[in-house]
């Protein structure tokens, strides 16, 4: 398929446009071209070409779901950030849309890094959706010297491009270093005012900052919503990124990534942590002080959730900087399956399960009977389900004897191993009972949901091993499904 690089952004970077009718479906040729890449996941969103990271601006407008994402349209590595855009009517199949946001500053000078960083959608009381996001003003050092400011992009018709961009916050509070980004905004009915959070650090501790506004344009700093305990800084954490804060049932949930953090006992990094608590009078009081892991796998980062149709739906970026796609790949980066968030029975844990659309959209064909054994796998995305006690279970998927993934439960400890693992990092989680497990495998992506979604583990492997056999040993009953597009 020949791309049509006919639009050039202000920055001089060529921005891809697909087809003449920018609002219409972008054409089966693009889907066919993507599907012709034997390594490209089928159930998970990926950009047609080039680099993608965080999900941004998630929302549903009318019947259409919008997924924006951090995008570098000039290569398969991270670079000056744009907002890519895709739309869907079922949360599973996506149309690729033109780039929505371009970096505003002049990036012509080689090596400058900056751009339209992460942000989220906000639906005003007038029903209109706006996007709050961070613009990073470029610096020549990736880790220092930059400035981050907050802006609003008001979309024009059909969300093809912004109609107006306004800077709303430039000055950082005292003690807050360069990292000052990734806004999430909501209307606080009790305060009758807007609230916004930003990821940052305060005197070196990762922190989430809380802001208030009467009009959504002028913002006052209300103080920290959360400041991480000192041990995080000692373990390398520099700042909070992509904070998410939302009502879930009758609680409030705070989700954070700690850039630079390495978990000492397992060696894992790129983890997302969460707290459940109460939010009143601009104070967030966690029910328990311990941060809980949202996903134990490390390839589930920059999660963004949003409320639609009474559900809290989330996407995350499946990447952890450690491994990457082999040279020659047309693109880099995939999104998780859409997940729906809830709380467990005693409201002490966040649960995530694939959205019902994942089940509706794909025909699940049982490929294995209801028992342990050794099975041939189809060359397609699969789902494995175990129900019953998980203790002692083991799933080993291989291609010609080479390991694709191994999932095992020893005592109450669930662990995942991929071909690329050398044992220096342990991908483990403790089950609380362990009576059910769902595992999706899609061309190197493994997403696990156990204990009703209270334990989730996501890994992205790059060894390009497409398993053709699956060995199941478990006293739970097992089923394997082939996931096919309808
Ligand atoms: C997280 C992140 C965000 C930032 C964006 C830049 O992955 O670092 O904090 O806005 O990526 O691409």
TrEMBL record:
SMART domains assigned to the protein according to its UniProt record, in alphabetical order: Glyco_32
Gene3D superfamilies in UniProt: Exo-inulinase, domain 1, Glycosyl hydrolase domain, family 43
Ranges for domain Glycosyl hydrolase family 32 C-terminal: 436-482
Keywords tagged on the record: Glycosidase, Hydrolase
Keyword Ribosomal protein assigned: no
GO BP term, example: carbohydrate metabolic process
Name of the protein in its database record: beta-fructofuranosidase
């Amino acid at each position: 398929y020949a791309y049509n690089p006919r639009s050039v952004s202000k920055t001089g970077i060529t921005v891809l446009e697909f087809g003449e009718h920018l609002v219409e479906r972008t054409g089966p040729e693009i889907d066919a071209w993507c599907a012709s890449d034997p390594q490209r996941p089928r159930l998970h969103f990926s950009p047609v070409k080039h680099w993608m990271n965080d999900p941004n601006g998630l929302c549903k407008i009318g019947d259409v779901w919008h997924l924006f994402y951090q995008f570098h349209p000039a290569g398969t590595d991270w670079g000056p950030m744009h907002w890519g855009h895709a739309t869907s009517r079922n949360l599973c199949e996506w149309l690729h849309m033109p780039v929505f946001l371009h970096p505003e500053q002049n990036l012509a000078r080689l090596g400058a890094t900056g751009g339209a960083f992460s942000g989220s959608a906000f639906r005003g009381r007038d029903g209109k959706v706006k996007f709050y996001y961070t613009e990073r003003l470029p610096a020549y050092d990736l880790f220092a010297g930059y400035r981050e400011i907050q802006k609003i992009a008001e979309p024009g018709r059909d969300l093809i491009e912004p109609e107006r961009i306004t800077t709303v916050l430039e000055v950082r509070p005292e003690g807050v270093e360069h990292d000052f980004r990734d806004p999430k905004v909501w209307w606080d009915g009790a305060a009758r005012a807007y609230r916004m959070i930003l990821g940052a650090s305060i005197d070196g501790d990762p922190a989430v900052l809380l802001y208030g506004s009467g009009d959504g344009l002028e913002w006052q700093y209300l103080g920290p919503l959360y400041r991480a305990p000192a041990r995080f800084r000692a373990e390398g954490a520099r700042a909070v990124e992509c904070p998410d804060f939302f009502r879930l049932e009758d609680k409030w949930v705070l989700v954070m990534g700690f850039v630079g953090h390495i978990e000492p006992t397992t060696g894992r990094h790129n983890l997302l942590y969460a707290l459940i608590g109460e939010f009143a009078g601009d104070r967030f009081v966690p029910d328990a002080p311990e941060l809980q892991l949202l996903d134990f796998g490390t390839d589930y980062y920059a999660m963004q959730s949003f409320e639609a149709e009474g559900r809290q739906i989330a996407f995350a970026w499946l990447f952890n900087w450690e491994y990457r796609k082999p040279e020659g790949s047309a693109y880099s980066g995939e999104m998780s399956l859409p997940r729906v968030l809830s709380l467990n029975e005693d409201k002490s844990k966040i649960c995530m399960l694939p959205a019902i659309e994942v089940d509706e959209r794909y025909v699940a064909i049982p490929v294995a009977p209801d028992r342990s054994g050794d099975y041939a796998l189809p060359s397609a995305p699969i789902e494995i389900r175990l129900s019953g006690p998980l203790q002692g279970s083991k799933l080993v998927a291989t291609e010609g004897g080479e390991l694709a993934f191994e999932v095992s439960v020893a005592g109450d400890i669930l662990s995942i191993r991929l071909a690329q693992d050398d044992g220096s990092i342990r991908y483990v989680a403790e089950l609380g009972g362990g009576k059910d497990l769902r595992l999706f495998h899609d061309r190197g992506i493994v997403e696990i949901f156990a204990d009703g979604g209270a334990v989730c583990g996501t890994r992205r492997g790059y060894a390009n091993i497409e398993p053709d056999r699956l060995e199941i040993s478990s006293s739970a009953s097992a089923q394997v499904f082939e996931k096919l597009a309808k």
